[in-house]
User: Which sequence fits this backbone?
């Protein structure tokens, strides 16, 4: 069966390449707004499944991977900052604190309609940083399209005191350990 990543994220693409399986990518057309009363983890799971199912409709005989990440500070969702000032404000709010990343993952078999859905949580403990350190980081990394205003796979590692979670790939946006388990349940064996 074909393997399709329901994402245009270069970060997810790079992560999936680690599994050394041929795959295609397709953009999902999914509204990403939270529903009233929906927790951040529920939002991440729902969006991951919605993305996988949206793309699965266009690909018969495929395994479709959907993923979505929601960053939270005290259950408040942190979006992508979009510009330097918002990135600085987000990092100042997270300064010295713990931020949780909920990464939803879904694998849909388009032939059977079966969906496996999970959510991997990852916690980032930030160092205490001066405003000058935060501004220098934002200027160097320019993390404007990253929830939480940092790239852990890049220079963002200098911001952290500690990382906590089962799969460091979840922090980047695609929990590979859980994905390997899901693929195995569909008959794809790695290595």
Assistant:
């Amino acid at each position: 069966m074909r393997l399709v990543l329901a994402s245009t994220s270069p970060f997810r693409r790079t992560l999936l390449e680690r599994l050394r399986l041929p795959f295609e990518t397709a953009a999902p057309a999914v509204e990403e707004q939270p529903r009233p009363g929906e927790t951040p983890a529920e939002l991440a799971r729902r969006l991951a499944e919605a993305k996988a199912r949206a793309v699965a409709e266009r690909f018969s005989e495929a395994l479709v991977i959907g993923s979505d990440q929601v960053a939270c500070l005290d259950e408040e969702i942190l979006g992508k900052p979009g510009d330097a000032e918002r990135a600085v404000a987000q990092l100042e709010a997270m300064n010295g604190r713990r931020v949780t990343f909920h990464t939803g993952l879904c694998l849909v078999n388009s032939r059977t309609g079966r969906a496996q859905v999970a959510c991997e949580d990852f916690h980032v403990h930030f160092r205490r940083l001066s405003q000058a350190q935060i501004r220098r980081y934002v200027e160097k990394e320019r993390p404007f399209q990253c929830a939480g205003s940092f790239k852990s796979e890049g220079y963002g590692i200098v911001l952290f005191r500690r990382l906590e979670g089962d799969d460091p790939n979840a922090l980047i946006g695609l929990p590979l350990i859980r994905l390997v388990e899901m693929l195995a349940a569909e008959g794809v064996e790695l290595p």
Summary: The chain has six helices and seven strands. The beta strands are 2-5, 24-25, 62-73, 76-78, 98-109, 115-126, 160-165. The chain has a mean pLDDT of 95.
